[in-house]
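Please go through this protein, sequence plus structure tokens, and consider how the sequence yields the tokens. Keep your notes short.
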Amino acid sequence: KGNGMIGNIYSMGLALQALGATSRFYAPRKWDCAQAFSVVYGHDYRLPMAIAQVLPALVGRSYLDAAGLDCVASTGMSPTLQMSPSPTLGTTEAPITVYYSIINKLQGRHFNYTTSVQVPGGSTLLKVLEEAEKKKPNTFSFKTEQTSWGPMVVSINGLAANTDDKTYWQFLSSGDALQQGVGTYEPRDGEHIEAVFSTY
């Protein structure tokens, strides 16, 4: 993409490793390393899996280098990474309003429901889903499964994603797919999030 993103924020770590490890095979076309790394530096990675994939690229190595590492020789040579401090626990931010829609125009009984919920600023999208479910449990019920990338929404309003049908719940903001999962994405005040039952 033009802004340095390769796939999405979760695929960046492996993409940077692959491009770094195989860069000599990309002549004469070069990829913009600085632009791609600026995307990584500008993102606040919180999921352990995402950190594990991006960290090797940040230190100039890839998973391919692991087999040839001499751990004894590199003792004490670990690079220092600047980490942003975590938010102070117990702080509360002013509440924000988030508009949330669930849309199914794909299978069975079609539906399109919208609600607005208030959550503390800095809340994740998962909190928005929980508040919507509390407000209207018969309409905005949902289920998640825990993955190594965090919670994944597998069912909304009783309609479950299905790998056989190649269906899933896609989350959008202003028509664009979210680059983070429900456990890490933090909606803005007044933002309208849509969960659309989709196929791939």
Observations:
- The chain has two domains: 11-68, 95-199.
- Residues 77-90 have pLDDT under 50 and may be disordered.
- Helices lie at 12-21, 33-41, 48-58, 125-135, 137-140.
- The radius of gyration is 20 Å.
